[in-house]
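Collaborator request, handled under Task 6.
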Amino acid sequence: MNVYHTIEKEAVAEYKDRGSRFLAYAFPIQAVDDFKKRMKALKEEHGKAAHHCFAYRIGTDGNLFRAGDDGEPAGSAGKPILGQLDSKGVTNAAVIVVRYFGGTLLGVPGLINAYKTATSLALQLTPITEKPVLGRFELQFDYTQMNDVMMVVKRFDCIILENEAQLFCRMLIGVPKAVETLCLDKLADLRTIGVRKVPAP
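Structure tokens returned to the collaborator:
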């Protein structure tokens, strides 16, 4: 798998059912901390809401995910939200649905429909983009080789994640999986460059 799909920017949608309001916030994330910060901000912004239900999926293998019902009946909120993320095939994305209770109980089928619909509406409002899966590598080299290194980095559309340029340089790059072998071969041709694979954060 050389590419993955994610959402580009935050979107908000509202769904109403029998007096209850469901505000769905869909937004891109890179790590669990990004999600926690947004949740904290939304809880402050919507302090009087009855529930803050959510789901997220992170990573190109899709193994890191969570869903939360925040007091709603088990499986009636977080699971339908996650189901919408998965039906769109997106990762590095989260949705938080804020519910203001309208006085009428919706029942589990009604809740599932409300959380699913609110999430679907929000995801329709934000562009879904395709991004390359990146392998992370640390390069160490002498400053005199900077031009040679940069030529390889640009040629293979690598992304510079960190760069410390002194007499001896250290650079952390993201290499698209599709060209990883070719790129590493070219870096190896430069001989005196140290290349080390770095695990994802």
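The cover message to the collaborator said: "The first strand starts at residue 3 and ends at 7. Residues 107-124 form the longest helix (18 residues). Please let us know whether this matches your experimental observations."
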